[in-house]
Each structure stands twice: as C-alpha cells, then as structure tokens.
Specification:
single chain, TATA-Binding Protein, 2 domains, 3 helices, 13 strands
Length: 217
C-alpha cells in the first residue's frame, strides 16, 4: 500500500529518546492524524520518525455483490447476502452469520472471541449489530464489523473494517498516558484548553506492522 504521509524528523526534543514503538495522535480539533514511530530495527536513542497527514483508504476490488480488500482478500462490504439467521437476540443472530462466513470475512476463528459488541440500533428496515475488534484485550484502531438484519431475520448488508492476521509483539505500552499526552501537546505547540479530552490505548496497524498506540482526542 502506498504511503501518502510526509515525513518530518522530530529532532532532539527532550522526550525524543524515550519515544516508544508507535504513537498515534488523532486530534479532532486539528482535523489531522499524527503518527510518531521508532523505525523497525532501531536501537537505543535513535530519533523516531514523525508523520503528519491524512490516512489513506484501503484499496478494494469491487464485484456485483461485494467489495473485497485488495491486500487480504477479505470482504469489506457485502450487499444483500440474503442469509436467514436464528437466535434469541440480534447479537446472537449476527454472531451466527459471522461464524458461518468467517472465511470470506477473514475472521480469526469460529468463536469470534476477538469481537465485542459495540452497539445495537433498531431502524425502519431492521436491526444493525456492530462489533469492535480486540487484540490481547485492546481495541484495534478503526476495526469494526456491522451486520444488518431485516425484519424477516435475514442478513441484508455487512460492512467490515476487520484487520485479519494481526500479531502484537508487545502487550503493554512503554509510555504512560500522561507522558504521551504531553508529547502530543509539545509537538503541536498546543496551548488552548480542549473541550473534549480523551486518551485511549489502541492497536494500530501501520504499513503492515502492528503496534500499540495511544489515540488522543
């Protein structure tokens, strides 16, 4: 996948020798995504690389009834699969469908242990069940699956940003949230107070490498 980010060296700031594997800063007020990462194979005090730009969309291949990832081959959008489902709840019905079609969707296993329920929404045409992907108990950045079930208990649409085959080398961050947030404010030279303040640990798949990151809003 082509990298559209522009590079910018962080230099010799006081925190530069302490930066960890990956720092993701999604700052909504600025409308940008900032990524600071230590390159693979770097050692000791090597300066990290800072990238600033807009995230690119994953390339897909379109068919009549679906779109699939050009990289993994997994379905990312499935139009009217028209599959009947059973179950006492909408979540149970959605999980039944996902388990039965895990190969096409690139899911990890039949038990769907890495998918946690995020939301269930009722609408005029039926119910949408949304799951979020987790790895080692940590949410994966922008990785979700939504299953729409109509009032006849048939799946009519699936939307997926699930990330197949993720492997995480570290299960704990090197820096704490306070240090990361201070690094973000220093990098952005931000002085004004923010009306919304949230820092969350996430799993981020960047250029084919899976790392821990902090998402700051």
């Amino acid at each position: 996948m082509k990298n559209l980010f522009g590079s910018r060296p962080v230099g010799s700031r006081p925190f530069s020798r302490r930066l960890f594997w990956l720092l993701l800063l999604a700052v909504m007020a600025f409308g940008v995504t900032l990524v600071a990462a230590r390159p693979l194979g770097s050692k000791g005090g090597d300066a990290p690389v800072a990238l600033l730009g807009v995230e690119e969309s994953e390339p897909v291949i379109s068919y009549v009834d679906r779109q699939v990832s050009a990289q993994s081959g997994a379905i990312v959008a499935w139009y009217n699969p028209d599959v009947a489902v059973t179950g006492a709840t909408a979540e149970a019905q959605a999980r039944q469908f996902l388990s039965a079609h895990r190969a096409e969707l690139g899911l990890a296993g039949p038990d769907l242990a890495d998918l946690e329920l995020k939301a269930i929404r009722e609408g005029l045409t039926g119910t949408t069940v949304r799951f979020r992907q987790y790895l080692a108990g940590i949410p994966v950045y922008k990785a979700e699956i939504a299953v729409h079930i109509n009032r006849d208990n048939r799946v009519t649409f699936v939307d997926s940003s699930y990330r197949p085959d993720l492997q995480l080398a570290l299960n704990a961050p090197v820096l704490d949230q306070a240090s990361v947030r201070q690094a973000a404010m220093t990098f952005l030279s931000a002085t004004a107070p923010f009306s919304y303040n949230q820092t969350a640990l996430t799993v981020y798949d960047f250029n084919g490498t899976t790392r821990l990151a902090y998402q700051i809003r």
